[in-house]
Design brief:
With about 300 residues, this protein is an alpha/beta fold. It has one domain: Rossmann fold (3-Layer(aba) Sandwich), CATH 3.40.50. Helices cover about 45% and strands about 15% of the residues. An eight-stranded mixed sheet has the order 3-2-1-4-5-6-7-8, sandwiched between helices. Strand 1, helix 1 and strand 2 form a beta-alpha-beta unit.
Length: about 300
């Protein structure tokens, strides 16, 4: 059953790595794609628009390139308009574009932090701001049939946001913000039948290549990650966009080769009630006895996933 045929998607950061894998899998299943990518370097300081043109030419008529930065004024509205004009509508939004400007907090600067937030988080919000009215109207018009089930939002996150990593204050903050945005999209679009989920990818990419291991476990992680192809992430994205995943929304998944994870989300693990006007010693005793057993270890995502991937 090829229930993705006829749908239209926007994928940002589409020319390479995970983004390209997502586009390839979608078009193989009959989806037509606006592939947006300005060919930015990993730090976003330089551009090469020729990359997305070459990728689109390789993919054929199912892909139309958009060689603009996601932070360019009017990008979001232009991407949505291009999808509707060239392919007759819009059903799927994949926010994947990201840059890195890593630095320890005590060496970072505000301009770099804001550049990462603008690309990785603000631009994702703006694309959803432009796209969600179309998805809501699709629901009213029963695009694809009744009940409406074509609307999908897929956010490409990172375990850096869930665990943290050295020197990634900007990147992890942006990806953590995307988690919140994903949840809000799931809530705001629920009545329209549009799902919203996040994938934390594990694969060889420009992000992986920038890792500077700080521990032996992190060195193992990098070596293993560079061996993982991005194709399984594309396949899982297609699954989330299919009718089989209509009931799934607001969730965080991980994809590492043949392994798939579902992540827990922050919820209270324990509850305690204090006496009236507790002293600091009272609070210390309460926290140590009731909460300490539930504390989360201070480990990086690289340490946590240094095990050998299943390929």
């Amino acid at each position: 059953m090829n229930d993705l045929a006829g749908r239209v998607a926007i994928v940002t950061g589409a020319a390479r790595g995970v983004g390209a894998a997502i586009v390839r899998d979608l078009i193989a299943r009959g989806v037509r794609v606006v592939a947006a990518d300005n060919g930015a370097s990993i730090d976003g300081r330089t551009e090469d628009p020729a990359l997305i043109a070459a990728f689109a030419a390789e993919c054929g008529d199912a892909v139309v390139p958009l060689a603009q930065s996601v932070t360019a004024p009017g990008f979001a509205d232009a991407a949505v308009a291009l999808a509707c004009e060239r392919f007759g509508g819009l059903d799927i939004v994949v926010n994947n574009a990201a840059i890195l400007r890593d630095a320890f907090l005590f060496k970072g600067n505000r301009a770099d932090f804001e550049a990462v937030i603008a690309t990785d988080l603000t631009a994702a919000f703006d694309l959803l701001r432009a796209a969600t009215p179309v998805l809501r109207e699709n629901a009213k018009q029963a695009r694809g049939g009744e009940p409406y089930g074509w609307g999908r939002i897929v956010t490409i996150g990172s375990t850096a946001a869930l665990y943290g990593n050295y020197g990634q204050g900007a990147y992890a903050s942006a990806k953590a913000g995307l988690f919140g945005l994903m949840r809000i999209a799931a809530l705001d679009m629920a009545r329209s039948g549009v799902t919203s989920n996040m994938i934390a990818p594990f694969a060889a990419s420009r992000v992986t290549e920038t890792i500077v291991p700080a521990t032996p476990a992190q060195a193992i992680y990098k070596a293993a990650a560079l061996s993982i192809p991005p194709a399984p992430i594309g396949r899982f994205t297609s699954y989330l966009c299919s009718a089989r995943a209509q009931h799934i929304t607001g969730q965080v998944f991980g994809v590492r080769g043949r392994e798939t994870f579902v992540f827990s989300q922050p919820r209270p693990l324990a509850r305690a009630t204090t006496a009236p006007d507790p002293s600091l010693d009272d609070l210390a005793a309460l926290v140590d006895s009731q909460f300490a057993p539930h504390f989360t270890a201070l480990e990086t995502d690289l340490d946590a996933f240094s095990t050998t991937p299943v390929l």
